[in-house]
Design a protein that fits this description.
Blueprint: E1 6-7, H1 13-17, E2 27-30, E3 36-37, E4 51-54, E5 62-66, E6 70-74, E7 82-83, E8 93-100, E9 103-112, E10 115-116, E11 119-120, E12 128-132, E13 140-143, E14 156-161, E15 169-173, E16 176-180, E17 191-192, E18 199-206, E19 209-216, E20 219-226, E21 233-235, E22 245-253, E23 256-263, E24 269-274, E25 279-284, E26 297-299, E27 306-311, E28 314-319, E29 324-326, E30 336-341, E31 349-353, E32 356-360, E33 368-369, E34 379-384, E35 392-396, E36 400-405, E37 414-419, E38 427-428, E39 436-440, E40 446-450, E41 458-459, H2 460-463, E42 475-477, E43 485-490, E44 500-505, E45 515-516, H3 520-524, E46 529-536, E47 544-553, E48 559-568, H4 575-581, E49 583-585, E50 593-598, E51 605-610, E52 627-632, E53 639-644, E54 655-656, E55 659-664, E56 666-673, E57 676-680, E58 692-693, E59 703-709, E60 714-719, E61 723-728
Parallel strand pairs: 1-55, 3-37, 54-59
Antiparallel strand pairs: 2-61, 4-5, 5-6, 6-7, 8-9, 9-12, 10-11, 12-13, 14-15, 15-16, 16-17, 18-19, 19-20, 20-21, 22-23, 23-24, 24-25, 26-27, 27-28, 28-29, 30-31, 31-32, 32-33, 34-35, 35-36, 36-37, 38-39, 39-40, 40-41, 42-43, 43-44, 44-45, 46-47, 47-48, 48-49, 50-51, 51-52, 52-53, 55-56, 56-57, ...
Amino acid sequence: MRQLIFFFSFVPFFSFSQAYNFNKQWEFLGPDDKPSVVKPQSASGVGPIEFIRVFQKNSKNLLAGSNLGGLFFSTDGGENWINSGSDNWPYSGCGWADFYPENEKIWFAYSQVVDNNGKPGRMGALGGIYRTTNEGTDWTLIGNPTSFGGSEYRTVYGFRFHPKNAKMLFVMTDDGLFLTSNCLEEAVKWTRLENLNGWIYDLDFQGEMVFVSNFAEGKWNIFYSNRDKLELKKITEIGSLTDKILTITFEPFRKNLLILIDYKDVSDALYEYTIETAELKKLMNNQMINFGAGHSFAVSPHDSTEFIIGHSITMKKWNYTNLKEQKLGGSYHPDVEFIAYDPVDTSKLYLACHGGVYISNDAGLTWISKCKGLGNAEVMGMDVSESDPNQVVIGCYHDGSSVRADFNKDGNYFWRTVNGGDALTPLIDPTDAGIVYTSTQYVGGGLYYSTDTSNNYTNIHNSNSVGTSGWELGAVLHPVDEKLLFFNFAVKESEGKGNFDIARTPDAGKPKSAERISDFLESHELKSYKVYGIFNNEFYPDHLYAYVLHLDKDSSGKNITRHRLFKTEKARDSANVVIESWYELEIPYSSWIGDVEGDPSSPNQVFLSYSSSRDVIANPEITPGLVYSLKYNKKTNGLKREIDITENIPNSIAGRFNMVCVFNNEKELFIATRTGIYYGTAKTQKGKSDWQQVGFGLPHCKIYGLHYHQGQKLLTVGLYGRGVWRYQLE
């Protein structure tokens, strides 16, 4: 929520803009450790960690990776974490990393532009395999898209070092297995292993053998070979359900191999492959692999009868001799991604989960959160208090809603998780910092209202007997009538059931106070749709915009999503009048909209950003813009003028809620993308001058929230993977 601010001055505009200092470091605001809680919250934490790597010669050295937030390292066994320098990669996300086996200061890491639902994602034009020889002080790109077949859509699932020749590095991709004979040379040379197509999802060495899990032509298989000759052969005993498999992972076990298979519609199972006899035997059914994509699986290096498997939202330790379960403690985030044993300490275990890093010093009976310095919260929405800009609320993927506030009224601001789960849009009343709105997406969740900084809260959807809007939740407060809340909901009535529309309430704490103010089935004959975003106009307070996902079919009958934008200029009129007043605004092209901001110079003009522009090199001539200035005819509402004002902002993934327009003698516009935060003057907004980048040192993550505080000249941003950052403009 941003206040409507007009600042009248006869000082020339250039003198005002030059008062901004764009040459400073961005400040990290957190959370950089697991937030505190008042009530127990199981699904909460600092941010998701997908894997942990332990340096086998000294387990004080650890690497922890986040698909979106980057790579972190520890030299004290996980007590403290430091960003590895991945903040400076073009894409800060890290899909995999590992130590060079002979030197704890040399690391290899995979930088990716996006993830794939918790698994590694495509590398993009600027991602790939990076190497550091000095603990992250400097990084060198040693494998780009060209190295791995030329495709920017290439995905790397991990890499492995040859057990007898550490310079030989194998890289598993979604289109074959690549290797180099010398991963330390200045210009690394990569070779694709012939006759092995499709995904290479896992690779492990056992004795003199190497094993590879592979998905090609709709089928999963396991290949094996002598680790030096690399003449791969297929294990044919895998069974008849290879088209029902999601992933295959394995772990060396004694002289054999344990194989974990995650099936689509069949009970997940654990197998043992006896190398000497080539026998494949099923050990256990009912292995519920909900998280970890098969990597919440580890075999003890100390006890030849022990292994651990992630099971649904917990972990189970098993004894091979009798296949009996040994209970483990459960005081960790329930979404477990990765498990590792300490190579020396028989009682020490490491766990990566959606809440960060946990360590057990008693063989898994109890767990301690070890997240100090991780700071990888995946922010999906953010707001900043106008009355106290040090107070911030965020909604996080996996880790609930957290508030940064002076809870004890002693001048000490700290983060507190106020509800768990997957959280989305939050809000703070601009006149009362104690009034906070938070959310969760899951069934029974919705938008919450609190008058005491979220110590206690009520569910707005439930108290108004309306359906929750799940992942598409959107909400905004009126710019002038600050208690007037607009939010989306799922229609329960038979006509239009399942569609998402907009409701408003003048008192979110009062039950049955909400009324419906949109019905696009009635007003525009949309049969299936979801109001995905709600935006208002600071300069024309009763202008409200609805970003609608129209679930339609094309001319051939194929399901498609049409992105549409609607507007009303009567947000405070009677409900029936508002429903009938919505009209559609033409937009440059149908794609995911990031933000809509009003233009103070005209009620018929807006700035519109898309959540991304093309992030690949191919076909640059058809690259669409990232941000537009749009002017509409005040009589017909048709699009009168369209200006692509992207200019020097690089093609990038931007995010959502990523623009701020202010009026201080002249119009100013801030826009946030993965590549940075940019400032534009009135000329920039007409496409006549370049954007100026604000500051340096901001990680390269998507943005989910940009706030400008006029009184203190503060910019605050929420990063999808690296928490909250702040910049003092003066």
